[in-house]
Amino acid sequence: ELKVEQNPLFLSMQEEKNYTIYCNYSTTSDRLYWYRQDPGKSLESLFVLLSNGAVKQEGRLMASLDTKARLSTLHITAAVHDLSATYFCAVDMEAGGGADGLTFGKGTHLIIQP
Amino acid sequence: GAVVSQHPSRVICKSGTSVKIECRSLDFQATTMFWYRQFPKQSLMLMATSNEGSKATYEQGVEKDKFLINHASLTLSTLTVTSAHPEDSSFYICSARGQGISPLHFGNGTRLTVT
User: Fold this and answer.
1) Cβ B44–A104 below 8 Å, yes or no?
2) Which of residues 31-90 of B touch A (CB under 8 A)?
3) CA of A28 vs chain B CAs: smallest distance (Å)
4) pLDDT, tens only, B16-31
């Protein structure tokens, strides 16, 4: 059974600070996704990471993937209040992806204090 | 980009009634759609995989007779919650994947409240 563990589950930080969210998963997978969810809303796709060493950046967010360590990180640089949300990592339930759903981490509830 | 439309966004129903939720892929064909459920302050849990033209595949612990899934076309999947009870109150989200390597795109979700 694929397990996806995120930490921390809750993070309160100040604006302009940097921080990293970690996502570990238990079985071999070469597709990892990061999503953002605002309260009462659905999920917004942030990043799709498809290979070992993949790094993607969008604004103040940067995601990376180490398939050997089964670890992905979401790094926040110089946080701003608008980034407050819950962030989920998710992994394809079987290697190769495609017709299978995702297994989600528990999510990281991020609050950025002005 | 790919868009998934879900309807209704919010529904309140009485215990014992049935509710149908629609999920449409607007600009791509989706042979497979996924239905998730999310309880407050929790993560998303996959309920079932909806396959166009064939029976849905349900995750362990999800009652297939209670959560009826129909995937009648390449752009539409429906989830019907039958004989709803208060414990079925939740946020239901559908998703679909476009062609090739792409993220799962999620509908806007349906907030179901059973009174």
Assistant:
1) yes
2) 31-32, 34, 36, 42-46, 49, 51
3) 18
4) 999 999 999 998 888 8
